[in-house]
Amino acid sequence: MKVTVVGTGYVGLVTGACLSEMGNHVVCLDVDERKIRILNEGGIPIHEPGLEEIVRRNVAAGRLQFTTDIPSAVAHGTLQFIGVGTPPDEDGSADLQYVLAAARNIGRHMTDHKVIVDKSTVPVGTAAKVRDAVREVLAERGVDIEFSVVSNPEFLKEGAAVEDCMRPDRIVVGADDERAVLLMRALYTPFMRNHDRLLVMDLPSAEFTKYAANAMLATRISFMNELSRLAEKVGADIESVRKGIGSDPRIGTHFLYAGTGYGGSCFPKDVKALIHTGRENGMRLEVLEAVESVNDRQKLVLVDKIVARYGEDLAGRSFALWGLAFKPNTDDMREAPSRVIVEALLARGARVRAYDPVAMDEARRVMDGLQGIEFVTTQAEALAGADALVVVTEWKEFRNPDFDGIKAALKQPVIFDGRNLYDPAYMKSLGFEYRAIGRAGA
Ligand SMILES: NC(=O)c1ccc[n+]([C@@H]2O[C@H](COP(=O)([O-])OP(=O)(O)OC[C@H]3O[C@@H](n4cnc5c(N)ncnc54)[C@H](O)[C@@H]3O)[C@@H](O)[C@H]2O)c1
């Protein structure tokens, strides 16, 4: 099938690459010339395991192309996926300007039937807005061309995006037109060979499902983070509690990890947007308001522990910070807890030496201008002469590090662990002062 993907970011690039892997002919369009140039020169603008290989293979086979040329991209695909960003507006609502601009571009250049697929995370009612935007442009052109609008929210996880896209748990398709559903089913059949995972529903339900999924996951994280604070007060160990409840199949083990709060490009903005949708409809979403405020506070939990240990004034102190990306296996720094932690430490006069296995360039870019942070290229360099090690992201390489080396390099053997990577008893036996999240004896 011929597919155009508008917006070649995390979602657009992965979707385009996976669709081409199944034999489809895909054109990925972006307005960002730098991104398209990198891709056309054989590079990959983001870090995502397995992506480079799949892109390279399909580009070589002539099934995957990248362009900034809007008319030819619109002409190419019968299916026009919109995967552009939907950042939060000042009031927390999803900013639809990029989605609607993409829709208008499709309307401006289409000459035959198109199925326009909203893949971006968009509030209920956006499909109708996309339809209106396209109709308006077609009317301006004085032409009458049939098109369908479909909602197909994306559920991939950064860091495992290719795997998620190739083997989806479910594919949600919101539509009110049979012809479009038929095409969507044909496109996705190769991704669900063992059983049908296509959930067809009405447009508003499909749009809502994506927000409900992210809001639920964010709620689990904030729930555990809040309980971890109480666990510290009452002498319980949140890791034991996590296992104790996660083994109940009604609860399950996923997204129950206490830590430094959720970040990334989705949870924070999607929770905000859903709260906003509630408000627009005369409803306060009280659970989600609490989820958000618990999370804001949790991003500072390590700083609170550092201040409790060293005092408010951190002038003259230096900290080794391991992990900058908002989670492992990505270089995405959007809303990363590390940003809040670094700023809070610097604001108290501390110096920070930071290391991340893949997010260094992105971190340098987003933290540009901050005084007192140095980006280094190894774990060891970050440690040299620091007062303590602060672990922020649970990269695999941090899970069993060289503890003797850490001890020798730090001024004193102190670790603040925002991801509960280590066993408090073991750390004690090694002579570390170990502070973690909601842990008995730490
Ligand atoms: N990143 C994720 O893990 C994830 C997962 C599921 C859903 N989503 C949703 O998918 C959407 C995209 O997210 P992302 O992380 O891929 O964003 P991104 O910022 O990585 O990519 C968006 C791309 O769209 C491009 N763009 C903007 N306007 C355009 C236009 N008019 N024409 C062509 N290109 C245009 C931008 O230049 C950018 O490259 C968002 O709504 C997000 O909430 C993201």
Automatic annotation (TrEMBL):
Pfam family of the protein (one): UDPG_MGDP_dh_N
Domain UDP-glucose/GDP-mannose dehydrogenase C-terminal: 320-424
GO annotation terms (biological process): polysaccharide biosynthetic process; UDP-glucuronate biosynthetic process
MF terms (GO), sorted A to Z: NAD binding; UDP-glucose 6-dehydrogenase activity
EC number: 1.1.1.22
The UniProt record lists the keyword Membrane: no
Positions with a binding annotation for NAD(+): D30, K35, T86, T121, E158, K269, R334
Catalysed reaction equations from the record: UDP-alpha-D-glucose + 2 NAD(+) + H2O = UDP-alpha-D-glucuronate + 2 NADH + 3 H(+)
Active-site residues, as the UniProt record annotates them: C266
Lineage: superkingdom: Bacteria
Binding sites annotated in the UniProt record for substrate: F155, L156, K157, E158, K210, F255, L256, Y257, A258, G259, G263, K327
Keywords annotated in UniProt: NAD, Oxidoreductase
Pathway where this protein functions: Nucleotide-sugar biosynthesis; UDP-alpha-D-glucuronate biosynthesis; UDP-alpha-D-glucuronate from UDP-alpha-D-glucose: step 1/1
Protein family (similarity comment): Belongs to the UDP-glucose/GDP-mannose dehydrogenase family.
Descriptive protein name: UDP-glucose 6-dehydrogenase
Source organism of the structure: Rubrivivax gelatinosus (Rhodocyclus gelatinosus)
